[in-house]
Amino acid sequence: MKNPSRRNKNIGTAKQGRSQNNRMVIPSSWHDAKVFYERLADYKVVERTVQDHTFRFVVEATRETCIYSCTIEDLCKLLSLIPVADYGELSLIILRQPKRKEELLNPVWGRLIYSFEFEGIHEPAIILEAIDLDGQLKIPKKQSLEMQREFQRLQQDGHAFVEGKRSFTTSLQLDKVRQTQLLRTLPHEFGHYVHYCQVVEAPEGDELNWNQRWERYHALPSEEKERFAHQYADQLNEELKNKGLLPFQRILNLEQIQDDGLSVEDFTPTPI
Q1: Is the domain of 98 the same as that of 193?
Q2: Whole domain around residue 155: which residue ranges?
Q3: Per-residue pLDDT tens for 213-226?
Q4: What is the pTM for the complete model shown?
């Protein structure tokens, strides 16, 4: 027999909808179809030619305490060490300032966008995010297998974590973040692009049309895509290190930054 005095255990909980209308989410706009990472503001475009291939670097202004760990000259030097055949149609490199809410809800070092809308044109792009030197990186103790591998990679990059009750924490340091973004993230995203081109853009003897090939690539397990990208980055780094080409010192040319119409503060920890 039902006891009317017995309280529903779901009352006042998320299961019954409590606080579901004020959850912290990355905002979107009904009149702007762009994804949040495509909505750039206060940016400048710098062109560089690397191995006869023109790259456009889109640099968004940073907020106070935030900088880009990689300079454009850093990126150009590493790009010059990547095989030209792997460039494909990728020519857009975005240096982007994430919003504070994005840093909390969707923190990344960088990302590959297969079709990035920039100034009315859709094209592949690699995004590298600015870092907040006053911020911290937290890795939870409860980790998936992939997170365990990433945690080990971060430690190999030089990030010194302090163990806490529920997580490992480290402060963001310019040289360590540069190691992660320049020597690992950028080659990793190139690995994703090379994989995409092999499956979708340039398969030989494949009777499927582009949409069918894209659906086939999209259906691949994320573990398979990540494994390919990691293998690409690891192999590239090993080859370049064996040749003595990696690592190299940060290239900070203040005159070149100013000639490009960029702000020196976007690339230096303190104003100069």
Answers
A1: yes
A2: 136-171
A3: 999 999 999 999 99
A4: 0.88
